[in-house]
Design goal:
Layout lengths: L11 E5 L2 E5 L2 H15 L5 E4 L4 E2 L9 E2 L3 E5 L2 E7 L5 H13 L5 E4 L1 H11 L18
Parallel strand pairs: 7-8
Antiparallel strand pairs: 1-2, 3-6, 4-5, 6-7
Length: about 140
């Protein structure tokens, strides 16, 4: 992985277990690692990165579809997990439309509080876990 000024991260292909995903953020890459950890420990059956697109058929302009980050298969069923660093207007619209057009699909938001706790809990346990780094040559 490539560390940049102020701890930013470049989107790139990442190998996690036997999967290769295009992670758009460190959080997304780490969440994939977390799901692989759960799978390895038998806590989930499987996970996939961006396998399904949900369309909002009656919408003609604006947000017409939604591509969740992860599809997680449990013994009890399927959930979609969305890694969110911030909730912009477009993201809010997608989630509202999912609730309206696909009410039976369960979406779970994975936000900054989850990652704060996960960094403490999993950094030393999950191989490849990435922590934000600061470049000492760049002012905060």
């Amino acid at each position: 992985m490539t560390a940049f000024a102020r701890g930013s991260w470049k989107a790139e292909w990442v190998r996690i277990g036997n999967k290769r995903i295009f992670a758009r953020s460190r959080w997304e890459a780490n969440y994939g690692r977390y799901l692989q950890f759960l799978k390895s420990n038998g806590e989930i059956i499987d996970w996939q990165h961006e396998p399904d697109t949900f369309w909002f058929e009656k919408i003609r302009r604006g947000v017409r579809s939604y591509l969740p980050d992860f599809k997680v298969t449990y013994r009890s069923g399927i959930e979609y997990h969305e890694v969110k660093g911030w909730m912009d207007a477009r993201s809010k619209t997608k989630l509202k439309r999912m609730a309206k057009y696909h009410p039976s699909v369960k979406i779970r938001l994975i936000e900054k509080d989850w990652f704060r706790a996960a960094n403490k809990r999993f950094a030393a346990v999950i191989p490849g876990w990435e922590m934000a780094t600061r470049n000492p040559n760049v002012a905060p």
